[in-house]
C-alpha cells in the first residue's frame, strides 16, 4: 500500500528512516551499488522527497504501528443497530487506526481499499482498520461488536 513520506528520523545505527503517514517507518538507506538514494544524505534531498509515496508492506500485512493509544470507542452494535455508514464504504482520517472487537457472533469485514481483502471476524479475531482506507462490514447472523479508535500518543 502506497503511503506518503511525512518526515524522517535516524535509527540507533544512524540510518535514515522515512516516517510514513500511516505511522510506520521505512529505512531509506543509500548503499550503492545495491540501493542508490543519494537524496537521503542531505537535509535538502530529504525535504525534496516529502510527500513521495513508498510501499508500506506493514500496512499490507495489517500490522499496527508502535506507540498508538486508544482515544475513542463506539457504542456496542448488534446486527440490527449497525449504522448504515458502517455497512457502506467509509474510511478513517489520516493517522487514525481502528480496532474492530467482536464480542459475540461473526462479522464480515471487507477492506475495499486493500484489493478487496475480506476477513471473517469473531471474538478471537479482531479487525484492523487502516487509516484512510475504504472498508465496510456486514453481519453474519447475530453479532455484537464495537470499534475502538487509536492514534499516535504524545
UniProtKB/TrEMBL annotation:
<dbReference type="InterPro" id="IPR014710">
    <property type="entry name" value="RmlC-like_jellyroll"/>
</dbReference>
<dbReference type="InterPro" id="IPR021948">
    <property type="entry name" value="DUF3565"/>
</dbReference>
<dbReference type="Pfam" id="PF09313">
    <property type="entry name" value="TehB-like"/>
</dbReference>
<feature type="domain" description="TehB/YeaR-like">
    <location>
        <begin position="72"/>
        <end position="147"/>
    </location>
</feature>
<dbReference type="InterPro" id="IPR015392">
    <property type="entry name" value="TehB/YeaR-like_dom"/>
</dbReference>
<protein>
    <recommendedName>
        <fullName>TehB/YeaR-like domain-containing protein</fullName>
    </recommendedName>
</protein>
<dbReference type="Pfam" id="PF12088">
    <property type="entry name" value="DUF3565"/>
</dbReference>
